[in-house]
Amino acid sequence: MSVATKQLQIGPIKLDFPVVQAALSGYSDTAMRLVARRLGAPYTVCEVMLDKFVLQIRDRRKNHHFMHVDDDEHPVGGQLMGADPELFGPAAQRLVERGFDVIDINFGCPVKKVLGRCRGGFHLSQPAVALEIISRVREAVPAHIPVTVKMRRGIDDSEQSRDKFFEIFDGAYHLGVAAITVHGRTVQQRYDGPSRWHFLRELKQHAGERTVLGSGDLFTAQACLDMIRFTGVDGVTVARGAIGNPWIFQQARALAAGLPLPEPPTLFEQRDVIAEHYSLAEQLYGAERCVPTMRKFGIKYSQMHPQHKQVRADFCQVKQPGAWREVLEKWYHTDAPGVAPPVDEPAPILQ
Fold this sequence. Notes:
Layout lengths: L7 E3 L2 E3 L3 E3 L8 H9 L5 E2 L3 E2 H6 L19 E6 L3 H13 L4 E6 L4 H5 L10 H14 L6 E6 L6 H16 L4 E5 L13 H11 L3 E5 L5 H11 L3 E4 L8 H10 L10 H19 L4 H12 L6 H9 L6 H9 L20
């Protein structure tokens, strides 16, 4: 089966294309997810939320964006992270009540602060606790709600770490998870060094018919298809490669259909998407509070402008509502070809 005709199934949810948007801390809010969906992503995941936070948050305007689900973005996943297994079940139930279609459990975050609090990737060092968390979530949410897991290939490259990885990986499916996403780096690597795609190929061979998604070093549409073809995984999740480049999903669909790689979006195409993103963020946060959020997106979007250094500098200076439109009017008022964003990452290890 070619990638163009390959569907991705997560429990009862059928997706028409196997390239999806990953959870991105500080980024994948409703606004980013909607833009990605409109440009070809069949499924997106919200930024990771702490189980304690989900249980304690009150329905106030300033917190509205964290668990907001738009009618136009289904299916959408809610990702949970935490340390105490007892809190995961009730937190998962609350995410389902708020409209999330999938519950994703984060066992992959490599940030030191997270590891120090026994969350995220730390759980790869304690299979019994990890599997208890999965069991509690699966029992807490309705049967039709898929439960998925995000992992890295281990804490490090030791045999002990590998054994623990497979204990969690196999045990999770036994407990009823619908799919597992695996990043080709270890927790110890964080985001440094190359991702090991060969491990993903070995893992998919081990998994057989069980649904496995790959992650790591996906900064171009071609890389997305290359990972699927080389490793045999059922789908891939695009993380950092989608920030400021939501066209990656549109481009991946074109390549999968046998078409040439589309040219980078023109300045008018970029302008329209940035303006749409800004409008969605303004609706989500309000005119004042969306400014810092959109500033970091503007920095990423600027990479596709031929004069990206100057555009980036102007986006960095935005501090008042409405100043965004001034940047767009200044730098995107005349149409011209865009440029592909730079990829300053090591090539993945294929063996």
